[in-house]
Queue: 3 jobs
Job 1
Amino acid sequence: MTTTTTAARAESAAAAVRHHYDVGNAFYALWLDPSLTYSCAMPSGPGDTLEAAQQRKLSYHLDAVRAHEATDLLDIGCGWGALLAVAASEGVARPTGLTLAEEQAAHVRALDLPGTEVAVRNWLHYEPGRRFDGIVSIGAFEHFATPEDSPAAKIAIYRAFFERCLDWLRPGGALSLQTIAYANMRRDQANSFIQREIFPAADLPTLAEIAAAADGLFEVRAVRNDRLDYAWTCEQWAARLRARRAEAVALVGPEVTERYERYLRLSALGFRMGKIGLLRIVLEPYRSGWFTGGGGGR
């Protein structure tokens, strides 16, 4: 990517994030769980609560990058800081978060988490000055490419991301990635309402595109498709928004409230039908130079 392309892409991503999150923290607080985790949860079965399922998801990603052994942890797309808060409470000395939303960054800073930094910065322009023991990215990967990018361009963008993560990781580090992905649906079949009104200038990856982008850089240690988890999560959010609809209308008006209600219903249906999936992928850098050949026994 050229500098001009990179700058334009970063500005487009920032504008899209402002479109979505400038609705305000108070609106999201009506229907998210208390940690303001705005990504797919990990329910354990009937009767599970949204709060418990979100904490289980955060623990899954922290365990995947061995955060209990980490000093420095990077969260790319940190949202309102739920994962940073858990990491700080579990002894990670220097958790760092990246977001494109000023309101989210202000919220994280107000939490006053020990040792925690948050920057309003696109990963394209981030220069950390140190390496990390683990990197987590939940719900950001969907926003790296745009509907105008060709499949080859998308893979190039994803590969640039993986190259940066590789440079930022210390030996023995890992990357835990969570993203919505196209499944039994082509990109030209994507819902125009969601692309236009909810997540403008965003395009989902496919599992094949992610694998191609990571090829030769990262080994896939684990991959899960938890699309039914996201259907459940969207249904939980929709029910909570419905229960507090009057408050939502008072905050943001009927049009915005109806837009989010429709988006949550359509998203749940898409996950239920298998049109879109929810990938959780754990990646570790390939080790170079470990195989020396020789005539050792088997």
Job 2
Amino acid sequence: MRQHPTHPTPDTDGPLPSVAELEQLLRTGPFHLALRAALAVRGLPLQRVQHHLADRGVKVGVTSLSYWQQGARRPQRAESLRAVRELESVLRLPAESLIRLLLTDARDEPERPAARAYRALVEASGSVELLLSELESPVDGGLHTVGHHERVRIGGGRELVGRDSQHVVRAHRDGVDRYLAVHHGDPGCDASRVVARAGENCRTGRVRWHRETGLVVAEMLFDARLRAGDTYFFEYGFEDGTGGPSTEYVRGFAFAGGQYLLQVRFDEEALPVRCRRFAQTTTGAPRVARQDLTLSGRHGTVHFVEQVVRPGMLGVDWDWE
């Protein structure tokens, strides 16, 4: 299985939520989306939030904060609830606004059985935050996506060979000169052997990886420093081929954005018997908007287009037999 974790990184950027949208989420929830929107509106990276909490005598890890704003884990212990109350102050939110949402979510959320794949994805999401903090990434990267065309290549051994992206972004602050791309390999992936490749209008900068989860984060350095409102086109990709059989490709979007086109191409010697597109609100949530996709072309290619991306996850899965 292969999947991108949902996280607020430049690899999943869209427009920042407005103050009005934040206020609406504080009224309606759920907790994790309200927290995520508050972090984005205030422009605070998780590492800085952690420092603010530490100054107030509350110890909480960056990974835990990441889990909370993804909906992968809910604050429950006394120390965690104290951290949430301090978060309301750090993020300049009304008193008890996040705590109230926690209580509401707890009443409304159905029980969900534990699954190995779900736990693995949660661990990967936390690892992304840690790698991004090493590269000093802000919450939104100063960019949102106008359009993104992604091509995924599946080899004759059913492995993820690589993927290529053509990306158009718009800066919403001055001085943006990079993009952080995230790659998550299939089980068995050797992250140290994955190659990050820069294409048109960018070059590869620092690269970080996490062996246990098969994650790679790479800087794509722009050829120009952008001003607020500037658009920029660039290309990049990852060469993998180190993991086991692939059965899906999923991309997470922390914010709303423009058009997203996903194309999956299979080797003509290894064609799946069925392909479907789907959507998810969060990792582990039910997959909805199912639609069968028809293979076309000599290599066997499927695709779908999402005209306006919403926060959540989009992907394609397939059956080999």
Job 3
Amino acid sequence: MKTVMFIGYGSMARKVHEMLPKNVILSTVLASARSASRLKAEIGDAVNVITSVDDLVEVPDIAIEMAGQEGVKEHGLKILKKGIPLWIVSVGAFTDEKLAIALHDAAKAHGVKIHILAGAVAGIDGINAASLAGLDKVIDQGRKSPSGWQGSHADELIDYDSLDKATVFFTGSARDAATLFPENSNVAATIALAGVGLDDTQVELVVDPALEHNIHRIMAEGTFGKLEISITGLPLAENPRTSSLAAFSALRLCHQLDQALQI
């Protein structure tokens, strides 16, 4: 039997909790002070709800971050220093170079691993494998409808009133994209870390008035050949802002904790 701690308990964590395999038990939820009382009432006494890593009663086998980049920044180092392996969904936190180095050093010093979850995209294993032989180009293209971009930095780059076809409105490095579009940084950072890095991964952002759902395309070329993957992402029914595939990427590893055969 394995025990896990969730960092955060939003719609993604609720879905993972609901579908945990029988041999994995949620022992602890690390929550914000403002939500702790509500979550204690919701989850019940079987799960320990805490607001600081220092309050841990039982050290879990794994900690799974599903709280956003601030959750990584606030709790990541303390978790690793407790000797707890850390799985991270909010990979955009690694665009903060000082934080990324500190997390890496803490994991190494305390003999534990950080696992970057694939999240809302697929093909990360292929990109990472191809990088061992050499990658010449990796492009991450994000396509959304106008409403999907409104309220972001895209408002300064797109003339929504005259838009009548799919238009690329941003091209730059994954690092630049993460700075200007932090809500897109998890996917870009994941692809970059798997492949050629934040500064050499190219990001294209597209606004498409014909779209109903967000589409992500990954294109890579190198010694291995060419790879192209397209994902039409559907959100969790419980929260339209949360990718269902991101939740299932965390759940997949929970299922693999005790599996002799892993894919």
